């Protein structure tokens, strides 16, 4: 069994976006604005030839830090059989390291409250109040990690 963290094309993320991210939500949208921008990175975990986790990293500043070069993490999802195994944390860490290496000063996301513990365990802090995301109808809170 070979596990690799790999760059993906935007369309490689659609299957897990549909089955994991959109499952049980008010949305079936699998394309995000900015998916095809030159600075956007799609990073995933492949086990043998199967994509088991996805993430998308857009260059976009957070509204609380308009002058700090920010990257927004979107569409983080891991197939259920691969959760709780460190796979998601390894992908998150790899993405954050890519951001740091590219000169980003912070990484942030609109995080689902249900996933909040995952992000906090992996170095993120919450910012501001909870809100309901208009696309999914799910409770969210912003999370942010300042990069040294
Ligand atoms: C969010 C996500 C990427 C985190 O990955 P993960 O591998 O589950 O992360 P962790 O191992 O840190 O576990 C996260 C939670 O799932 C629980 N868990 C552990 N093993 C699990 C398993 N085999 N299956 C499901 N959940 C499991 C953990 O106890 C933990 O619960 P807690 O947050 O209440 O402490 C993943 O759960 C996921 O894809 N969720 C659905 C999509 C989603 O919500 N994405 C985030 C959008 S902001």
Radius of gyration: 14 Å
Which CATH class applies here? Alpha Beta
Class based on secondary structure composition and strand pairing: alpha+beta
Number of domains: 1
CATH fold-level name: Aminopeptidase
Strand percentage, roughly?
35-45%
Give a list of the ligands: coenzyme A
Average pLDDT figure: 96
Q: What is the β-strand count?
A: 7
Range of helix content = 10-25%
Helical segment count: 3
> Shape, please?
globular
* Sheet with most strands: 7 strands, mixed
Give a topology summary:
Layout: E1 3-7, H1 14-21, E2 41-47, E3 50-59, E4 70-78, H2 87-101, E5 106-112, H3 116-121, E6 125-132, E7 139-146
What descriptive keywords fit this protein?
single chain; 148 residues; alpha+beta; Aminopeptidase; seven-stranded mixed beta sheet; 36% strand; globular; binds coenzyme A
């Amino acid at each position: 069994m070979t596990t690799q963290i790999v760059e993906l094309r935007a369309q490689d993320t659609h299957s897990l976006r549909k089955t994991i991210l959109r499952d049980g939500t008010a949305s079936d949208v699998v394309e995000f604005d900015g998916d095809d921008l030159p600075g956007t990175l799609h990073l995933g975990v492949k086990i043998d030839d199967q994509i088991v986790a996805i993430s998308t990293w857009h260059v976009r500043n957070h509204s609380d830090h308009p002058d700090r070069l920010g990257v927004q993490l979107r569409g983080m999802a891991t197939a259920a059989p691969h959760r709780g195994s460190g796979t998601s944390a390894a992908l998150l860490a790899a993405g954050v390291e890519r951001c740091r290496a590219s000169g980003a000063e912070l990484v942030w996301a609109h995080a689902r409250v249900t996933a909040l513990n995952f992000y906090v365990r992996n170095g993120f802090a919450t910012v501001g109040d909870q809100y309901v995301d208009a696309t999914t109808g799910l409770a969210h809170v912003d999370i942010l990690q300042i990069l040294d």
